[in-house]
């Protein structure tokens, strides 16, 4: 794959693996609290559409500078200093979101798997694995993601098949409620569960995507696939746990997996198997953001020794991740991260795009 | 050099895998829990431990005792009692394979089920599929009853309801997940009741839990459970026996087997007033017929059976509706669920005072019985 143009498929895998992460476990509760309707999965489709439009906006910006990443484009457009500030915001965003994800993973591992192992150890082990993979370069990250992609899909498939018989259809009804308001409000939340496609700004170095057609195919396929998986899991979650119950369950999808049981023979505790698979999805997400943060730091600081910067990124993720006191505080930090995402997903690309467009028209 | 150091560091980290290790031989698996009031202290809790050495079979070894051991302890709170286990057994209790929970009727009469269950839902060790039962007997005694087909009483209790598709009197298990759902939806519900009948555990009826404070308010006997099963659309199969005296059929036993059953609950709004229509469609087959005169090869043979069966089912459903509306004024029939689905706007508005509305809602019952056949032979 070296020095060659990347085809669309690895990029789709990259985006899907990046997007699927914590959201699949915590999103049903967050959505239930805001939307409070059995048809809240419609909100996901709205969220995905917003993400798709946002993805096109980002592409409109990076298309003008082929074979360059956001970190090279920003200083070029907005001047060295402001550009560097933009880059740093993006780097901080990547670090913060990785920290949030690892910490949530650590909490879940602590609840369900290893209740004596300190969170710090769980987080450090994962970050060291990231450190190692990221130091091997983007080609190897891509290869890793493709290797594990079928495994992740298989796990989702098995969970779906096993829990489908627990669904109580009445929990999902009524589907057609006239009240659109909550669904729109919910789209604000579901939109954030599709965050991850913005890393397309970082991948552009390889000159992967050149035209609108391939870009929209990539976005459509990856967001579509994630949206399908999310909708499926929402339907399972609502069908098995009901909306009222979702509101009070900390990790709905795991509780859903816990409901799997076959009377008669000893098949229980499927949630443990599910968690092992799920940790891989967390790892793929964190690796992607880790890589983006490292690349940003390297480009902005113009530094040659990646070894040290790699360590800096890793340690800052660990420090950020250990900062919240407990799970409630952790979830409340989620809102700050949402502001950061607004900035780096919408504001920065939009500002850069406006500057280039206005410059061109001035000429 | 760098690479080597790094690899060694990584390998060192692998050692943490043993951090949480817990040998399976040292785990005290608990498969049943019973809750009751204590004699000396506030609460008592019975734990049913698995004693692997006494399980017969696989090794073919001689078993000297029961494969389970019940440990009843008392304390001020359930969590404290669980910790107190460590004073009497060397194996830490492990609840991940808990099968059933038996609660005494006194306990849920005075304490809210919400409080009792919250501990079990909060802790991740408990599965959501644990079946909950209540009993009027002594909880510690009923958990000692020698099981008939299973190895452990706790498993036996849980599996009793497995035959719910065979009989009209067996409710489906009320699981932790169900209770937690009912409580978060603020709905009344029922918990199946077990009793000791001739040294064997037997399902008998159900306890009604009010949604006002989630305490026990009344009982349904097994006849009334039938009506409840019809109205909650959980009838899969079972028998309709027209031998009741009120069926004017006293001499002729007619027993019908249910092949298919479906209940539709249709709430409609009529000028702002809620009306509920219950429609039961069922297909039955003649199972046992003591009426020799009846000739099933003659057209119209099933008219009388049809009419009697319809009246019989209607009566049992109306009985439980009147219990719910008049005696308890509680909606344990899950009518509210259908109002939520069919009339969401109305339900949203009246969710809070549903209890007071429910008792005056007119509920009409329609039963359509279709006699499907008469079996393989009609002996004359």
If you had to describe this structure to a student in words, what would you say it looks like?
With 363 residues, chain A is mainly α. Chain A contains 16 helices and no strands. In chain A, α3 crosses α16. Chain A is globular, with a radius of gyration of 20 Å. With 380 residues, chain B is of the alpha/beta class. Chain B folds into 2 domains: 196 residues, no CATH class; 143 residues, GMP Synthetase, Chain A, domain 3, CATH 3.30.300. Helices cover 30% and strands 30% of the residues of chain B. In chain B, the strands form 2 sheets. In chain B, strands 1, 2, 3, 4, 5, 6, 7, 8, 9 and 10 form a 10-stranded mixed beta sheet that branches. Chain B has a 4-stranded mixed beta sheet with strand order 11-12-13-14. In chain B, β8 and β9 form a beta hairpin. In chain B, α10 crosses α11. The longest helix of chain B has 26 residues. Chain B is globular. The interface between A and B is medium-sized, with 31 and 26 residues.
Number of helices of chain B: 12
Mind summarizing the main beta sheet of chain B? 10 strands, mixed
* Straight-line distance between termini of chain A: 40 Å
Strand-pairing-aware structural class of chain A: mainly alpha
Please report the number of helical segments of chain A. Answer: 16
Structural class of chain B: alpha/beta
């Amino acid at each position: 794959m070296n020095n060659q143009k990347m085809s669309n498929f690895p990029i789709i895998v990259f985006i899907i693996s990046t997007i699927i992460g914590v959201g699949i476990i915590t999103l049903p509760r967050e959505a239930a609290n805001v939307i409070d309707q059995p048809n809240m999965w419609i909100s996901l489709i709205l969220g995905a559409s917003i993400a798709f439009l946002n993805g096109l906006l980002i592409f409109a910006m990076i298309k003008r500078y082929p074979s360059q990443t956001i970190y090279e484009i920003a200083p070029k457009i907005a001047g060295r200093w402001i550009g560097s500030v933009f880059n740093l915001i993006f780097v901080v965003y990547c670090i913060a979101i990785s920290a949030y994800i690892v910490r949530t993973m650590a909490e879940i591992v602590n609840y369900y798997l290893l209740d004596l192992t300190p969170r710090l150890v769980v987080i450090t082990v994962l970050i060291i694995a990231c450190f190692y993979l990221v130091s091997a370069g983007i080609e190897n990250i891509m290869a890793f993601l493709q290797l594990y992609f079928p495994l992740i899909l298989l796990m989702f498939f098995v969970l779906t098949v096993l829990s489908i018989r627990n669904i109580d259809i009445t929990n999902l009804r009524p589907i057609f409620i006239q009240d659109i308001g909550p669904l729109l409000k919910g789209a604000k939340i579901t939109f954030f569960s599709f965050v991850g496609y913005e890393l397309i700004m970082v991948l552009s170095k390889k000159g992967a995507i050149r035209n609108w057609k391939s870009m929209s195919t990539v976005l459509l396929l990856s967001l579509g696939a994630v949206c399908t998986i999310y909708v499926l899991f929402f339907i399972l979650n609502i069908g098995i746990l009901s909306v009222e119950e979702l509101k009070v369950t900390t990790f709905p999808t795991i509780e859903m997996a816990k409901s799997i049981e076959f009377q008669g023979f000893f098949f229980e505790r499927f949630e443990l198997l599910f968690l092992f698979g799920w940790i891989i999805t967390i790892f793929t997400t964190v690796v992607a953001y880790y890589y983006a943060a490292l690349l940003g730091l390297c480009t902005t600081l113009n530094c040659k020794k990646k070894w040290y910067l790699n360590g800096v990124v890793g340690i800052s993720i660990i420090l950020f991740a250990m900062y919240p006191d407990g799970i409630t505080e952790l979830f409340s930090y989620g809102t700050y991260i949402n502001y950061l995402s607004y900035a780096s997903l919408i504001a920065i690309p939009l500002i850069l795009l406006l500057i280039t467009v206005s410059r061109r028209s001035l000429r | 050099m760098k690479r080597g150091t790094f690899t060694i560091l990584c390998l060192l980290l692998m050692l943490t895998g043993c951090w949480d290790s817990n040998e399976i031989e040292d785990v005290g698996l608990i498969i049943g829990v019973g809750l009751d009031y204590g004699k000396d202290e506030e609460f008592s809790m019975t734990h049913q431990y698995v004693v692997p050495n006494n399980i017969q079979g696989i090794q073919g070894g001689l078993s000297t005792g029961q494969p389970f051991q019940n440990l009843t302890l008392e304390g001020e709170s359930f969590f404290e009692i669980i910790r107190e286990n460590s004073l009497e057994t060397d194996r830490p209790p492990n609840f991940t394979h808990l099968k059933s929970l038996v609660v005494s009727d006194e306990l849920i009469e005075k304490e809210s089920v919400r409080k009792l269950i919250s501990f079990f839902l909060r802790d991740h060790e408990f599965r959501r599929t644990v079946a909950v039962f209540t009993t009027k007997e002594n909880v510690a005694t009923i958990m000692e009853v020698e099981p008939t087909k299973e190895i452990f009483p706790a498993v036996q209790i849980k599996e009793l309801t497995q035959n719910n598709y065979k009989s009209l009197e067996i409710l489906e298990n009320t699981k932790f997940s169900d209770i937690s759902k009912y409580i978060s939806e603020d709905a009344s519900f029922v918990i199946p009741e077990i009793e000791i009948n001739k040294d064997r555990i037997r399902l008998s009826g159900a306890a009604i839990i009010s949604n006002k404070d989630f305490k026990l308010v009344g009982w349904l006997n097994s006849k009334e459970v039938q009506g409840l099963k019809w109205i909650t659309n959980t009838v899969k199969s079972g028998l309709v026996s027209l031998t009741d005296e009120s069926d004017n059929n006293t001499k002729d036993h007619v027993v019908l087997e249910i092949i298919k059953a479906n209940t539709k609950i249709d709430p409609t709004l009529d000028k702002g007033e809620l009306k509920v229509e219950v429609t039961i469609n069922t297909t039955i087959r003649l199972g046992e017929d003591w009426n020799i005169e009846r000739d099933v090869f003659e057209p119209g043979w099933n008219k009388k059976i049809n009419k009697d069966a319809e009246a019989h089912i209607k009566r049992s459903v109306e009985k439980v509706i009147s219990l719910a509306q008049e005696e308890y004024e509680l909606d344990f029939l899950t009518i509210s669920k259908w109002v939520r689905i069919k009339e969401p706007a109305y339900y949203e508005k009246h969710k809070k005072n549903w209890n007071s509305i429910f008792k005056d809602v007119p509920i009409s019952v329609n039963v359509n019985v279709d006699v499907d056949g008469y079996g393989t032979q009609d002996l004359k």
